[in-house]
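agent> Task received from the user: take the single chain below, predict its 3D structure, and emit structure tokens. No templates, no multimer pairing.
agent> Plan: (1) validate residues, (2) run structure prediction, (3) serialize to tokens, (4) report one or two observations.
agent> Step 1 OK, no nonstandard residues flagged.
tool_call: predict_structure(input=
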Amino acid sequence: MERIALFTGTFDPFTIGHQNIVERALPLFDKIVISVAMSKLKHAQEEIDARVSAIKALYGNEPRIEVESYSDLTIDLAKRKKARFIVRGVRSVKDFEYEREQAEFNKRMGGLETILLFAEPGLASVSSTLVRELKYFGRDVSEFLPNGSVVSEK
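)
tool_result: status=success, residues=154
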């Protein structure tokens, strides 16, 4: 049976921290589905499509990575993709507590195992929220983004 994992998030934007988690998780699985969570209340479809396209471009040469958006429960996406695992990155105790609760729900409701990868020390402070805020105030955020990525203007 193929080992398929989901890596889910809003990825607003997809940072070098996210990239690092994907690269470290890839040897553990046959396939990783990077799944951009949609909230029609928060983001326009164009924003979601742009994020999906940017992440696809980043991993265009890696056949074991698939990128798409979704707007339902992660457990429902996992069922469609035949995924048995969820990969999550953890930067702090706060992240750990949140992920532990989510893992319990996903195990109970969907039979999914959650694999937590701890952020590398140099990346623990990188967050999409921080990158968006720096960009808003006109700062160069390129060091926090994978090569060639951009942060959309909102």
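agent> Step 4: summary for the user.
The first strand starts at residue 4 and ends at 9.
agent> Done.
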